[in-house]
Automatic annotation (TrEMBL):
InterPro entries: Cyt_c-like_dom, Cyt_c-like_dom_sf, Cytochrome_c_Peroxidase/MauG, Di-haem_cyt_c_peroxidsae, MauG/Cytc_peroxidase. The keyword Iron applies. Residues 241-353 form the Cytochrome c domain. It comes from Leptospira levettii. GO terms for molecular function: peroxidase activity. Gene3D superfamilies: Cytochrome c-like domain (1.10.760.10). It comes from the Bacteria. Signal peptide: none annotated. Pfam families: CCP_MauG. Keywords: Heme, Iron, Metal-binding, Oxidoreductase, Periplasm, Peroxidase, Signal. The lineage of its organism: Bacteria, Pseudomonadati, Spirochaetota, Spirochaetia, Leptospirales. The keyword Oxidoreductase applies. This is Cytochrome-c peroxidase. It is found in: Periplasm.
């Protein structure tokens, strides 16, 4: 109901904006006192009015294109219908618990910091595990992960439930010996009893199934809405001219060929065929499937929060977003971008950041 009301308010606001600007334009163009006036102030206002009308028209066209080609982030991810506040609280506790690692120094939040200005990843080239092991691939942001149907750089999981405990038993991450050790650690902590009782009142057992459900519920709660969503939903005045120009370039040059949908990527894999874009010692999806066709196939990352989550590429080898765009321009886009066009693209990409974070 609230979304319907919001849409009607936006539609009414847009109508009033167009009506007011059209009326202003007609007045400036046709009223005798303006036509015959030699007052420079009136002439200046006339030019400003025309420019404003042009900008609003440009914004309206871009908004419709962005809505059709990308869309806005839904309020909640699929599967969240059964996520209660109690499940989310339990998942949050599990996510932050350093005692669930092999030597009690690391938690999920270590590599996926979410508090303050952090945008769900550690901003390291590759992460380090509990014993200082150097990870193979760059940590992706965990924000909006509930909307993903492809998880991990090699696409080895397709649901949060299946992924939920992988980091705990991965020898390169939190290094527990088995799923059983994870459950035993939780069972040995009396503070968990109340959390499980609240989250699963009909079956409060501390078991693997309930752990997976709780972590998944918490991860689905990590939704980051952006300025871009406000624009797509109808706020034509929220973007400045540079942001509009950057969006126009993004839609024109083929960025949406890969970074599609309301996540602007995140749900497909692609083969990297350029030696400038990958570590040749990492074979991507091939390491999961053994299929030679999957060599150098990796997940296309979502561009949401991209200006907050450097370094880039699956090996974290590039720290500059401008260089990253330049490399992808050489590889995938329809035409070569100028330096100033890349700068405008970055201005637009900043509008994809969580509104509570800082670019």
């Amino acid at each position: 109901m609230r979304s319907v009301v919001a849409k009607r308010v936006n539609d009414a606001l847009n109508f009033l904006i167009h009506f007011f600007l059209t009326l202003t334009f007609v007045c400036f163009s046709n009223c005798k006192e303006f036509k015959n006036s030699n007052n420079e102030n009136y002439q200046f206002q006339h030019l400003i009015s025309i420019q404003f009308i042009n900008d609003i028209s440009f914004a309206s066209d871009l908004q419709q294109r962005a809505k059709n080609q990308l869309g806005s982030l839904p309020n909640s991810p699929p599967g969240s219908e059964d996520d209660t506040e109690a499940k989310i609280k339990l998942g949050n506790k599990l996510f932050r618990d350093i005692n669930l690692s092999a030597n009690q120094i690391q938690a999920c939040v270590t590599c996926h910091p979410i508090d303050g200005r952090s945008a769900g990843m550690d901003r390291q080239t590759t992460p380090r595990g509990t014993f200082g092991q150097l990870g193979k691939r760059n940590t992706p942001t965990i924000f909006n992960v509930g909307y993903n149907s492809v998880l991990f750089w090699d696409g080895r999981r397709n649901s949060l439930y299946d992924q939920a405990i992988d980091p705990f038993i991965n020898p390169m991450e939190m290094s527990l010996s088995s799923e059983s050790e994870l459950i035993q650690k939780i069972q040995n902590d009396p503070s968990y009893s109340e959390y499980f009782a609240n989250a699963f009142p009909s079956n409060p057992n501390i078991n693997l199934h309930n752990v997976k459900l709780s972590i998944s519920a918490f991860e689905r709660s990590l939704v980051s809405k952006s300025k871009f969503d406000d624009f797509v939903l109808g706020n034509l005045l929220i973007f400045n001219r540079q942001e509009l120009d950057g969006l126009n370039i993004f839609l024109d040059v083929g960025c949406t060929n890969c970074h599609s949908g309301y996540l602007l990527g995140g749900n497909h894999l692609s083969k990297l065929e350029s030696v400038s874009l990958y570590n040749p010692n990492d074979f991507g999806k091939f390491e999961v499937t053994g299929d030679s066709n999957d060599r150098y196939v990796f997940k296309i990352p979502s561009l949401r929060n991209v200006t907050l989550t450097q370094p880039y590429f699956h090996d974290g080898s590039v720290t500059s977003l401008k260089e990253t765009i330049g490399r992808m321009n050489e590889f995938k886009l329809n035409r070569r971008l100028t330096s100033s066009e890349i700068d405008l693209l970055i201005v637009f990409l900043k509008t994809l950041s969580d509104k509570t974070k800082s670019n």
